[in-house]
Amino acid sequence: MISMINRTLTTRLLKAASQFPVVTLTGPRQSGKTTLVRAVFEDYAYLSLELPDQRRFALQDPRGFLAQFDGPVVLDEVQRAPDLFSYIQVLVDEQTDRTGRFILTGSQNFLLLQSITQSLAGRCAVLHLLPFSLAELTGREPLSLEDLGRDIPVKAARTAGPKFGLQEILFKGFYPRIHDKGLSPRDWLPDYYQAYIERDVRNVLNVGDIEAFGRFIRLCAGRSGQLLNLSGLASDCGVSHSTARRWLSVLEASFIVALLRPHHQNFGKRLIKSPKIYFLDTGLLCFLLQIRSPQDLNHRAERGAVFESFVVAELIKNFLHRGNPPGITFWRDSAGHEVDVIVDTGSGLIPFETKSAQTVADDFFNALAYWRRLAGATGSPAALVYGGDLSFKRSGITVLPWFLL
């Protein structure tokens, strides 16, 4: 088996392959999709449609292309030959009792999901792989969101921090290649940005003004952790509102950014209806913000926003890598009271605050206490994650260090 850091999604991936004839794995470029499927399905045939000759074969003779595989196969970057989906549908419908026949991967979620909806609805499980989670990097199980805010996990209370510091990991980010190869993020991330984000997204959108598009991405980075004002974003970038909306939707579908929707339980209050925007990798975010070293983070006004983006991304990974849709929102009323994240575990709502400081101040708990009073649940679970290294209970709220996410 290919040597790799254990990925949380492995269990869900194997289960899906035992239940569906087709499994599709999506995620951003360089998130480890190929490494994962080749390790998990090492006995499968493998072919990448990034190869020009194989892509031409698939485009010109899809029936002949698929006929070359006698058994199950992994098809990498399958969105490069979208006509294959209709032919795959015919093959799986001919043998409805065969599961795990096709494992498909792709980096362009917007193209993949469109093809799946048209041809493979009901026949295909769709899973999402983001770059490494902090739990994966440190070789432990992900934080149990179902128990979040109830008690301090016994293991957590005894867990020492990782070998790397908070500023270091925020600056590096979580793309596997940086960690697997020991690469400098200052060298790798600019190439990643140019090779994948500009090329892929530009090709899909047919962007003519690459300078305006680059400015748009950087303006989004400067707003990470903030309420999305699409009109203001479009105006600052010098493009139309509809263009900004289209560009943002593709960045979201490409797993570059996530939009956190507001929680609508109003408790008799007027609520903010705009989503908040977050970058899903802090290394890429730091690159776009022109943060040049881990030490720079200590002196930048964006430090809190980068930390909050890290927390939101880790929560999203926690859901996605277990095969679940992200059950997180935020809450904010028109008076400015705000809870950073509301985690929906399915059995209840858990308010969750983020603070980048290394020490805990009394006012860190104000928003959580306010929300619990409004909800009529003053003793309900609540949690706060911060930049320090201790776990404890305070004011009935579970406080966790950043490295336990």
Can you put this structure into words, describing what you see?
This protein is α/β, with parallel strands linked by helices. It folds into 2 domains: 10-128, P-loop containing nucleotide triphosphate hydrolases (Rossmann fold, 3-Layer(aba) Sandwich), CATH 3.40.50; 134-184 and 258-404, no CATH class. The protein is 41% helix and 16% strand. The chain has 17 helices and 14 strands. The chain has helices at 10-19, 33-40, 52-60, 62-67, 84-94, 109-119, 134-137, 154-158, 166-172, 176-180, 185-205, 210-222, 230-237, 241-253, 282-288, 303-320, 366-375, and strands at residues 22-26, 45-48, 73-76, 102-106, 124-128, 226-227, 257-260, 276-279, 328-332, 338-344, 349-355, 383-386, 392-394, 397-401. The strands form 3 sheets. Strands 9-10-11-12-14-13 form a 6-stranded mixed β-sheet, with helices on both faces. α12 (210-222) packs across α13. The longest helix is centred in the middle third of the chain and has 21 residues, at 185-205.
